[in-house]
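User: Structure tokens for this complex, please. No commentary.
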Amino acid sequence: MLDGADASVEAIARLLDSAALSVAVFERGPQVTVAYLNAAAAAQAAVAAEAAAGRPVNEVFPQLDPALIEHLLSDTGAPAEPTNLRGMLPGGSAWSVDAIRLGRDRVLVLAEELGDAVSSRQRLEALLASTNVIWRPIDFGSMAPLIVEQAGRLLSGVDVGLWTISADAPAELRLTASNSPSMKIGFQTPIAGTVAGEAARSGSPVEVTAAEGLGAGKRGLLDGIHTARAVPLTAGGRVLEDRGYPGVLVFAKRLATPFTDAERRLMDEFGKLVALAADRAELLADARHSARRLELTLEVAMALAGSLSPREIIQVLLSRTLETVEADRATLSSMDDHELVIEATHSRSGEVRWVGLRYGLEYLEHQPLISQALRTQQPVFGGAMSTPDAAPEFRAALEQMTQTATLPLFLSGRPAGLLIVSRTADRQFTNADTTTLQLMGNAAMLALRNARLFEELKKASASKTEFLNLAAHELRTPVTVISGYASLLRAGIIERNSTESDKALGVIEQKAGELKKLVDALLLAARLQTGSPVTKRRVLDIVESVRLAASRAKAFAGLKGGTVGSQLPDAPILVVADGDHLARILDNLLNNAVAYSDGPPQVEARVVPAPGHVWVEVRDRGRGIPASQSEFIFEQFARVEDPNESGTSGAGLGLYIARGLARNMGGELELFSTELGKGSIFRLRLPVPAGNESEGAEAL
Amino acid sequence: MSPAHDHTVLLVDDDQIVVDMYRFVLDRAGYRVVVASDGLAGLEVAASIRPSLIFLDIKMPKLDGIEVLRRLKADPTMRSIPVVMLSNYDEPAFLSQSKILGASDYVIKAATDPAELSDVAARYLGSPI
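Assistant:
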């Protein structure tokens, strides 16, 4: 022990003690004895500090050269200034020793076990040098061998292994790099029960020694090792779980000496620096990856936007999807409020199937992954698909898939489609995968909508051209006759005031009348197409309107030897309608019924009141209309294709105009029923005046 | 072959009023005019009377004029009869198709003075008078 006069020396010793150095004071008497040892020095000597006091130095520290001790206490050898004596230490020693004389007979010895480094400053310098080396690569893979190489340089005589946990096998540790031939790279062991695993889990270094039962439960890792310290590669508290490279550095010592605090500090600091470097490398890799994906997405978006063909867009999206995330199958569906359309599916083998299957949205109840994706508007990761409800031809292919990601796609913020990617390999899709795919998919939905709008536009433009062509043809027909006869009259080919000239003038008049009607119809059709024709709605008696129309049609029916009958209530029934438009609709229905009858026409008109509206039914016993044409007949220039049709003239505008006018008046015109060879029933619905809703019903 | 037979013209058109007008012109020019009011009838009449010239409308019931033309030109016994298309369609598609199928001429009705029809007939048959 030091005496009272040396309290200051003890204070200094304590201070040094706290710096985790081994501190000793040697005193010259008859022998050189130990006057003081701090805890670290006592640990090195494997004695209790108190028991060592007063004992000869060469007993307590048999490894110290007696000549060195003599030298420290000699007049010349023990400097008054702190002096590093490393060069004087026995060869191969990992100790750094500083000495300072305290008066005549005492010397303070500071010792630090630092491997190759000799002082804190040098230790820091060594760490920085290692960091510089580790910092260079920009990916963890290239960094791993450098990490163990540098760790071995910092701590000589220590085996270093870098263990990592990959996303593919989250319960396993894998030896990624090592500086010892006895540690085989690629060796894998379960995390549970290992020192490295414990360090990874806790985020703090874990140290074990053989004395503490190193082998128990620490399978394989620590054979023949005296002491091991596992340092998690964490810059903060957390192992780099979300970066996919959680790692642990294991330092193992075969010698029967424990790690010194300085070594521990060095290992822990090194671990933190490696973690930062790895983190940086990962961020860089992420950034490069993101940049590449963004570039790819832009490239795909450009390719998609440049196409006006829906098929091409779908094919580009699906093939790029497979490439980008290394999937085995990608399927695109589009959807609206009513149904889901499976557009196409693309397999890795390059096969594209244009599916075109349509499902009601209730189908989604059988596909929980899809419905969840639509409900949450988030990608849903899942295992195998539910195949029993899939189309039979895809079941076999879908059954092989073990990983799927179901991505909702959006257009103007509304769900517009689904991109489903799947893999046969049991490797999950990542968030980065789905982010990229959603960007590409949303771009595709936009391109697809534009392409489809363009197709509609082309169709509309073609139908406009067709309208003009058909309209021109229909107009030329009466013009041919009018101008033809006029020319024959003027040239005198038809003699004036002859029977022939009377007939010609009659035809000219007739055709001029038809021309006027046709022009009116064309104008009306054009107005119905672009806006609304002038409509003067008023309350009128539908019974009277139908009666008048039936009597107008009787003459035409009479020409074909038929009749137009009517079943009309006695009392008036009021509707809201434009009288002229109503007359046009009724004439069209009745004339069609007469015209399209084979043999003598039997046409009947009925007025049927209903709550809130009135039905007018026109029934014929004519040819009927093929089911495939039941909506087509309401289109412009629509003429039912009938190989036996003969002599029925008209531009095919009648029903188009009639329905347009009915809707314009707040009503509707529909083909209620039809049967080939038996006839058809057309129904016109008209609104009743406000407050009269029940009147029609009473008149029933 | 008698001269009368040489000047028989078949007029195939479903519009009775147009037919009357053209028949008047062709009659007056001295041609013998036979009429058919749809495509199928046109083919039958052509096969039975072998006219010297056919005026053929396009838009007709039962068989349209383009199809009638195709069949006429596919029939070795009628292939040589000149066919003049007579229509109010002026889309280039109809004109080129008619030409490819072997029509001799294409007359747009509304743009042609009916009196010219006899000139067209004279071009192929010579004047009967």
